[in-house]
DNA sequence: GTTTAAATTGACCGCTGAGTCAACAAAATC
DNA sequence: GATTTTGTTGACTCAGCGGTCAATTTAAAC
């Protein structure tokens, strides 16, 4: 069953290449020619598997989002308490495999296109809705006041945005640990000295590390 | 002395038009032709005043940033206490004249170009440095621990980024007031029940309103 | 081994965009 | 009023893009 058709393999290859080229050269510099070269194939071959450039880039973005989501789902499945779920989401959003300037470049490039591409708009909305929903439900189930959980979820997702932005712009040489520290200081103020929270943080941190190590 | 040379007038016109076109059509859709049409002039005329497209867009971005900075300076000059300075910066960053989706589109488009344009990189660095510096010095002079002031300044500037991002992506129909409320809830947790702070907030809010009304 | 289907590509087309240039119009200077 | 300087533009070049297509190679089926 693992056997994939050549068509599927090629589509994967080209979509992956498209995302890399996008990260490297931006939306302007992402031409069919370059994407093709990046895989060693010809431009016509790319257009054989994708009806046009827009379709290619859209699946590239969707693919990138899927890998992020999969990691989040995997970590969430290993979490057993609300706080663990909360930190699972955080860890997934700052996974060493994805929280890199190159990936952030691709993400920002997509954001810049959102106003002119309804598909991207939908995708963005879905991403934000899922993120907020995950954060909110986790926080609420810790026993927090729903209103407070809602506000905190918004704040955290805002911080995540800002941190990804800076990762892309490479301001202050931001790295994964600093990013997570930033979130922690804010959440610490809202939920101070919570023994469950701190334990969950430790646990998900090690689980995430093991998870990454395992994949390599 | 107010007399400006035609060259200066044209450069202003074209730069302003370039920013508007950028906001409307994104970086891809910002062609010399469109910018020219937007002012009623010809494409060749634009190239008479700007050596090339890149130079045009760069001055457009610099110009947009300058208007933001001027508003910040004006509000800061009306502030007399540290907390008032803090809220002057906040008000300037969420001024009704600038905190609009169209402007945010332009800003995000620039961010997407940063990795491929050293000029934009420098501009971005300058903007962030100034923002953080303003926030930090204001917070520090309220008597707060410098380390705490530093962390809070970072958090607030992160939130500002995230809020502008969402303004551009038009997620959750974010408006000015909600944005400022978000910041307030976070800062309230770090500096709770501070009578000076709340007074400063009120004052700068009304000053900013008067400032905007006065300009119209 | 032959036939059939799928995969791949070079050559080509139409179009649009950035940038050049020489010609023209309009002030400014004398 | 003649001359020079400045502003403005249409017509042009040239390159690169997305996209089509027919031809060719490769693999599969029988």
Quick structural summary:
The first copy, chain A, has 216 residues and is mainly α. Chain A has helices at residues 6-29, 32-39, 43-49, 53-78, 82-93, 101-113, 118-141, 146-169, 176-190, 195-215.
Structural class of chain A: mainly alpha
- β content of chain A, as a range? under 5%
Oligomer: homodimer
Secondary-structure element order of chain A, N to C:
HHHHHHHHHH
Radius of gyration of chain A: 19 Å
CATH superfamily assignment of chain A? Tetracycline Repressor, domain 2
Number of domains of chain A: 1
CATH class of chain A: Mainly Alpha
Q: How would you state the average pLDDT of chain A, rounded?
A: 95
Write a structural description:
2 copies of one chain form a homodimer. Chain A has one domain (61-215): Tetracycline Repressor, domain 2 (Orthogonal Bundle), CATH 1.10.357.10. In chain A, helix 1 crosses helix 4, helix 5 (82-93) packs across helix 10 (195-215) and helix 7 (118-141) packs across helix 8. The first copy, chain A, is built from 10 helices and no strands. The first copy, chain A, is mainly alpha-helical and 216 residues long. Chain B binds a DNA duplex (30 and 30 nucleotides) through residues 6-7, 10, 31-33, 41-45, 47-48, 51-53.
SSE diagram, text form:
2 copies of one chain form a homodimer.
Chain A: H1 6-29, H2 32-39, H3 43-49, H4 53-78, H5 82-93, H6 101-113, H7 118-141, H8 146-169, H9 176-190, H10 195-215
Chain B binds a DNA duplex (30 and 30 nucleotides) through residues 6-7, 10, 31-33, 41-45, 47-48, 51-53.
List the main descriptive attributes of the protein structure presented here.
mainly alpha; Tetracycline Repressor, domain 2; 216 residues; DNA-binding; homodimer
């Amino acid at each position: 069953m693992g056997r994939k058709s050549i068509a599927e393999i090629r589509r994967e290859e080209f979509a992956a290449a498209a995302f890399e080229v996008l990260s490297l050269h931006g939306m302007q510099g992402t031409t069919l020619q370059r994407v093709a070269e990046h895989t060693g194939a010809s431009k016509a071959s790319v257009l054989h598997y994708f009806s046009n450039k827009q379709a290619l880039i859209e699946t590239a973005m969707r693919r990138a989002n899927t890998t992020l989501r999969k990691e989040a789902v995997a970590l969430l499945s290993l979490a057993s308490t609300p706080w663990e779920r909360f930190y699972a989401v955080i860890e997934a959003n700052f996974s060493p495999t994805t929280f890199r300037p190159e990936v952030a470049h691709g993400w920002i490039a997509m954001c810049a296109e959102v106003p002119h591409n309804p598909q991207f708009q939908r995708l963005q909305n879905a991403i934000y809705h899922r993120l907020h929903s995950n954060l909110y439900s986790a926080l609420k189930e810790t026993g927090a006041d729903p209103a407070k959980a809602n506000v905190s979820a918004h704040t955290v997702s805002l911080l995540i945005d800002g941190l990804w932005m800076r990762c892309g712009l490479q301001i202050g040489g931001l790295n994964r640990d600093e990013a997570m520290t930033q979130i922690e200081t804010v959440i610490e103020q809202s939920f101070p000295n919570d023994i469950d929270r701190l334990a969950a943080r430790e646990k998900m941190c090690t689980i995430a590390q093991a998870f990454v190590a395992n994949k390599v």
